[in-house]
């Protein structure tokens, strides 16, 4: 693509490429180091303040939800017919949307 539009696209592509490289560097180095610092083990005496008590409650709440999700998956893993039914409904809705769903969008 030539002209001003081509120059703008090249500059945009260069900007996106550099930002992806910077983002990958941050994700692979700085973020993991920060998580290592923030996620250190909390001793029992540190949980006496309000933030510690909230985090202790939140972790318990999250653990209970994870256990409930595991129980739900264990119940539904033995029901193969339900999995096939959900897949058939999903595929049917995708086909229906492809055939009828986009008709209301106005084209110019």
Question: What do these coordinates show?
Answer:
By secondary structure, this protein is mainly α. The chain has three helices and no strands. The radius of gyration is 25 Å and the shape is flat. The two termini are 24 Å apart.
Q: How many strands in all?
A: 0
Shape: flat
Helix content range of the residues, please? over 70%
Rg on CA atoms, Å: 25 Å
Q: Count of helices?
A: 3
Proportion of residues in β-strands? under 5%
Structural class: mainly alpha
Low-confidence stretches are none
Main sheet properties: none
Mean pLDDT across residues: 82
Query: How far is the N terminus from the C terminus?
Result: 24 Å
Taken in chain order, the helices and strands follow as HHH
Which secondary structure elements does this structure contain, and how are they paired or packed?
Layout: H1 3-38, H2 50-77, H3 80-100
Which structural traits does this protein have?
mainly alpha; 108 residues; 3 helices
Provide a concise account of the structure shown.
Helices cover about 80% and strands about 0% of the residues. It has about 110 residues and is an all-alpha fold.
């Amino acid at each position: 693509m030539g002209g001003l539009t081509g120059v703008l696209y090249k500059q945009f592509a260069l900007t996106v490429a550099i930002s992806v490289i910077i983002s990958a560097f941050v994700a692979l180095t700085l973020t993991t180091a920060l998580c290592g610092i923030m996620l250190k083990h909390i001793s029992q005496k540190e949980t006496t303040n309000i933030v510690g008590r909230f985090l202790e409650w939140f972790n318990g709440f999250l653990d209970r939800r994870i256990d409930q999700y595991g129980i739900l998956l264990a119940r539904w893993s033995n029901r193969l017919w339900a999995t096939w039914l959900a897949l058939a409904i999903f595929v049917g809705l995708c086909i229906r949307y492809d055939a009828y769903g986009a008709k209301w969008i106005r084209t110019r």
